[in-house]
Write a structure and sequence with these properties.
CATH topology of the domain at 31-136 and 191-287: 2-enoyl-CoA Hydratase, Chain A, domain 1
Largest sheet: 8 strands, mixed
Helix content: 40-55%
Structural class: alpha/beta
CATH architecture of the domain at 31-136 and 191-287: Alpha-Beta Complex
Distance between the termini: 64 Å
Radius of gyration: 23 Å
Strand content: 15-25%
Length: 291
């Protein structure tokens, strides 16, 4: 009986310490999201975009919070997979019908990062921000010579001529290159249309600047890819004005931070994926080349 009682006491203190730690973690971040004044939500979009779930969840929470009057997308990302970037873009387009959205570009907001920014009402960047890279890339590893050196044969059974296109065990055939290039061209056209529509830039001008090259914030402004030069604080102030907030707005950050244990469990798959080299993953990417 005594052992059971001690076990219960220990579990209670562990649970209490967990709650205290969670509370300290929330309030130590300087997030005044619990205050009663009108707020600007800052959605931090960081690193390579392989999964859109936490950003879509954030947008849904913001949508249902009447105290949040405007949104800032703080983007520090070189891009990522096409599908997740397009999902975030579409959700931002939808929510900006209810609440104004300002994009703030940090160190780098290129390719898929810039694609997401295009959904905002206004885009601000620093003079030296790396942005642009309007293009699509697909990369494939070829182990053919290594397999030959190791004297390893591979047998492939497939249901159609293109089923194993991009296999690392052999070279691409000419018809496969043409097939993959058609996919890339189609997705590139989607990117260019999104930029043309959102930035009100003529398609023929987009064709000239959307060849994958990167631009500084100053160059992007000259090309109308962004609206103005400004910091994150400038973006928050602008969003507050656009949202009709009087005085300095409160700021609440998304995605909401989790405790280390919860984050480790719930985000393990995403962390493992994001730590893999790009060339080891199949797919089309809105992704700026690394230097």
């Amino acid at each position: 009986m005594r052992k059971i009682f001690l076990t219960i006491v220990i579990l209670f203190f562990i649970f209490f310490a967990f709650l205290v730690g969670l509370g300290i973690g929330v309030f130590s971040k300087g997030d005044d999201g619990f205050s009663g004044k009108d707020k600007v939500a800052v959605i931090n979009i960081e690193n390579v975009i392989f999964d859109s779930r936490e950003y879509l969840e954030s947008i849904n929470s913001i949508k249902n919070d009447s105290k949040i009057k405007a949104i800032v997308l703080r983007i520090n990302s070189p891009g990522g997979a096409v599908g997740p970037a397009q999902e975030i873009y579409s959700e931002v387009l939808a929510i900006k019908k209810q609440k104004p959205v300002v994009a703030s570009l940090g160190t780098v907001a290129a390719s898929g990062g810039y694609y997401v920014a295009c959904a905002a009402d206004k885009i601000l960047a620093n003079p030296g921000t790396i942005t642009g890279s309007i293009g699509v890339i697909a990369q494939f590893i070829n182990y053919k010579e290594l397999m030959s050196w190791a004297k390893v044969d591979v047998e492939v059974l497939k249901s159609g001529a293109f089923k194993d296109t991009g296999s690392p065990m052999r070279d691409l055939k000419p018809e496969e290159r043409a097939y993959l290039q058609s996919l890339i061209d189609n997705v590139h056209s989607q990117f260019k249309k999104a930029v043309s529509d959102s930035r009100n830039i003529a398609p023929e001008k987009i064709d000239i600047i959307a060849d994958g090259r990167i631009y500084t914030g100053e160059q992007a402004k000259e090309l109308s890819l962004i609206d103005d030069i400004g910091t994150l604080n400038d973006a928050i102030k602008l969003a507050g004005v656009m949202g009709g907030i009087e005085g300095e707005p409160g700021v609440t950050n998304y995605p909401k931070k989790k405790t280390n244990l919860i984050e480790l469990i719930s985000n393990l798959d995403t962390k493992l994926i994001s730590n893999l080299p790009l060339t080891s993953q199949f797919g089309l990417f809105y992704m700026v080349n690394t230097f």
